[in-house]
Specification:
Shape: globular
Number of strands: 4
Helix content: 25-40%
CATH topology: Alpha-Beta Plaits
Number of domains: 1
CATH architecture: 2-Layer Sandwich
CATH class: Alpha Beta
Number of helices: 7
Distance between the termini: 28 Å
Largest sheet: 4 strands, antiparallel
Order of helices and strands: EHEEHEHHHHH
Oligomer: single chain
Strand content: 5-15%
CATH superfamily: Transposase IS200-like
Structural class: alpha+beta
């Protein structure tokens, strides 16, 4: 059967995940991670994405990106291919690096945006790599909440949008949100939860 075309809606955000084939490592060391982030930054500019969150794990990565143009498939195909070629050359290997196609999940509301961002940032904690999300080097959590220097990839104001327009206050609220285990309490920390209708970025009309 032919693959179904992906839905690519400008103004909407997508949670994108990609795993290594046979669950192999796709990031062996810090050099690999730095290289991927450089390629990601260049693809963000080329495909006109707004990056809201990221986390690079050993065998997979998570990205939360908002489209400004319908470039989801073309952008991720280019990003994954470019990184796979560089990785294989550096690691002196041949063959596929990534399994199948990347997976994408359309963000439906501000609450969904907030929960996915929390999920991404807690990945290293749940994997037992570190006790606190800010201790993990290969995610944007520390810079998003203002603990470290700002990320060149992530649009902090857009990332914290579910928690208000005042970035300083939104950072504090998001830190509490990440640490709150009770989903019922977390609902009260996100503005407009649940939001009526699909989540649409401000200033962008649906196409």
């Amino acid at each position: 059967m032919a693959r179904q075309p992906r839905l690519e809606l400008p103004g909407r955000a997508y949670h994108v995940t990609q795993h290594g084939v046979d669950d192999r490592r796709i990031f062996v060391d810090d050099i690999d991670c730095d290289l991927f982030l450089r390629f990601l930054g260049e693809e963000i500019a080329r495909s006109d994405w707004t990056c809201l969150s990221y986390c690079l794990m050993r065998t997979h990565y998570h990205l939360l990106v908002r489209l400004n143009k319908p470039t989801l498939s073309s952008g991720f195909q280019r990003l994954n291919l470019r990184y796979a070629i560089a990785y294989n050359k550096r690691q002196e290997r041949r063959g596929h690096l990534f399994e199948a196609r990347y997976k994408d999940d359309l963000i439906e509301s501000l609450g969904h945006h907030a929960e996915v961002t929390r999920y991404i940032h807690l990945n290293p904690v749940r994997a037992g790599i570190c006790p606190e999300p800010e201790q993990y080097q290969w995610s944007d959590y520390g810079s998003t909440v203002g603990l470290y220097i700002g990320e060149f990839i992530v649009d902090t104001a857009a990332a914290l949008e579910p928690f208000g327009s005042d970035v300083k206050q939104a950072r504090a609220t998001y830190q509490k949100f990440v640490r709150e285990a009770d989903r019922r309490v977390r609902r009260g920390q996100v503005r407009d939860w649940p939001q009526r209708g699909p989540y649409q970025a401000p200033g962008l009309a649906p196409e």
